[in-house]
Amino acid sequence: MTDEWQRLDPSARWLFHLQAALRWMLFQVPFSMVVGVGVTTFSSVVIGVVAGSVFAFVQLLLALWMPSLSFDRWRYQLRADDILIERGVLLRRLTSIPYSRVQHVDTHQGILEQSFGLARVHVFTAAGVGADGTIPGLDLDGAKALRDALVERGGGDDGL
Amino acid sequence: MSELQEDEPTEEVARAVEAPVPPQDADSEWRGLHPLSLVANLAPRTWRTLRGTWPLLAAFAIGGRRDSIAILFLVALFFGLAVWSTVLHFLTLRYRVVQGRLEIRSGLLNRQMRAIDPSRIQNTELVRNPLHKLLGLVELRVETASGREVEGLLSALSEEEGTRLLGLLDAARSTRAPEADEDEEVLATADLSDLLRYGATGLRLGAGIAITLGLGLEGLQFLDPEQYEKVPGLVGRVGGVAAIIAFVSGLFLLAVFGAVQRFWGFTLTVFEGRLVASQGLLTKRRVELQLSKVQLATVRQPWSKRLLQFASIHVETAAAHVGDGGTASAEVMIPVVESPDIALLLADVIPHADTVWDAELHPPHPRSLRRGVLSATLEGLVIGVLIGIWFGGLAWFFLVVAPIIDVLLAWLDHRHQGWRVTEHLITARAGYLNRRTHVVSRQKIQSITLRQGPILRRWDLAKVVIRVAGSRVDIPLLATAEARHLVDTLTPQRQPAPVSATAATALSPR
């Protein structure tokens, strides 16, 4: 844990691709079919099929392209007083969370993450109802080390 | 605050709940709600039941005899459940104060034990609605920063018990010893003329006019065309003007009544480091919060209030919660503050706030006007198209007028945006028609986020969002380098230093 930008585990790239492929198959293909049926009601069946197919194809291109970009953009840095998290492809975000404001830190492993031996870290402050910072695609030991580091550096005035 | 919640009671929990009382602590005896809480709680629950079962009741009114029996059975079942939960709540809810800590236990099968540490209390509130007043009861609400609900709710106590409990909690959470000669200082009050001004300038008045006119026009569509044409003749020109005046007056009175009901007898005082607000006509409220817990102060100055030279100030702690009508994040709202007094009152709520109120703010980046104009043009076009489709004919003229008006407002908004970071505070101002100025202490920052979409990246601009517990402050658009410098500079642990709008050079390593 140094004062330098840290990147995600390299295997996280494939995890992101797999997650995107599953999203495409389970949600975007059925949604494209709904779009096709919707267009058919206003025009012909052929136009509906073409519209649904084009929609699904565009979604497929995005599912193939975005995960790598997302992987490249996601990084974090432990500094003297705060953790910086940068992520996002179209909408880029850089978040600074002071250590003293950290209320608790979660490590999370879904089924896919377990199969890759990866975990994600959620950092919670008192600012909102959800996690203020999320770092996915860390190897399990790295995620635990990051969680422990954040908890150790925390404490003190939490600004409440 | 800590919680213990379990599906089935265990002996350990039962023993812990029934633990013997330390003899030296006279307040550690478990107490229950006032017996009249059965009435005070059953009334709102009955109302909620009726509200929830209105489709059944409607079906009962128009249905056949056989259906009616089944419907009555269902409604009776729901009402019985409401009665059961009210009785159960009364029988199982117990509370006590042990060494300043409020402990509340409740439930029969699903037992819950909640302990609220005094240092975690954000604010306390005593509420007396008309039913409470009739029964001589009060409701005590204790809020922490840990969620979106009232964490400690004692719905019906005698007035003496409510006051006693509030005193115990206040004494326990007070961070400093009271000075011997310290008096209660009145910071603000609101008389009837103030409330008239506040009600008259409420933004809901404008929205009400727009909605009601829209509904009225829609209603006219259902009239027979021949009758529709007769309406102007029947009412006459004078009658039409009188109807409009009566209509606007009605909305005005409604807004004023709302303000009077909410803020009647408003008094804001400060005493022993606590901010105390008392207000209300039918439902009386007394809100107490520690000044050290204040997260954010927002000065609200819509154009109508600026015209009458006053503002409203919202003071928020971390205890934002969801109320019946939506999120109620403002624990104390000062309805009327004369413009010359704003700085002084802000300083009473957030130390040093008077210095930023009087100081000149840094403008947003000049290129941010492009973003404003782009959004306004798109918004205006959408509005213009909608009006054109709805009314047709000459209304398509709005396709030109709406974008022009929107762009003009965007330009005015851009001119009045501003921000400033000082040694202790952050200030951000936005809006022309509905101007808001946020003041937040740097020590309250929870996180800082820089945001950039594709268009902002192309124009080398970025948005900085500062989050505090329960709320957020958006800084007007800045150059990317300047925004990154803010992210690096505002971290609370660092030695606070003033940040100028032009001194942004340092970048974090990439």
Word description of this protein:
- The complex is a heterodimer of chains A (160) and B (510).
- With 160 residues, chain A is α+β, with helices and mostly antiparallel strands.
- Helices cover 50% and strands 24% of the residues of chain A.
- Chain A has a four-stranded antiparallel beta sheet with strand order 1-2-3-4. Chain A has a three-stranded antiparallel beta sheet with strand order 5-6-7.
- In chain A, a hairpin with an 8-residue loop joins strand 6 (118-124) and strand 7.
- In chain A, helix 1 (12-42) runs antiparallel to helix 2 (45-73).
- The longest helix of chain A is centred in the N-terminal third of the chain and has 31 residues, at 12-42.
- Chain A is elongated and about 65 Å long.
- Chain B has 510 residues and is α+β, with helices and mostly antiparallel strands.
- In chain B, the strands form five sheets. Chain B has a seven-stranded antiparallel beta sheet with strand order 8-7-6-12-11-10-9. A six-stranded antiparallel beta sheet of chain B has the order 17-14-13-20-19-18, sandwiched between helices.
- The longest helix of chain B has 39 residues, at 225-263.
- Chain B starts with a strand and ends in a 21-residue tail after the last helix.
- The chains are: A alpha+beta (160), B alpha+beta (510).
- Strand 4 of chain A pairs antiparallel with strand 21 (445-452) of chain B, so a sheet runs across the interface.
List keywords for this structure.
heterodimer, A: 160 residues, alpha+beta, four-stranded antiparallel beta sheet, three-stranded antiparallel beta sheet, 4 helices, 7 strands, 50% helix, 24% strand, elongated, B: 510 residues, seven-stranded antiparallel beta sheet, six-stranded antiparallel beta sheet, 44% helix, 26% strand, globular, disordered C terminus
Summarize the structure.
The complex is a heterodimer of chains A (160) and B (510). Chain A has helices at residues 12-42, 45-73, 111-116, 140-153; strands at residues 5-7, 75-78, 82-87, 92-98, 104-108, 118-124, 133-139.
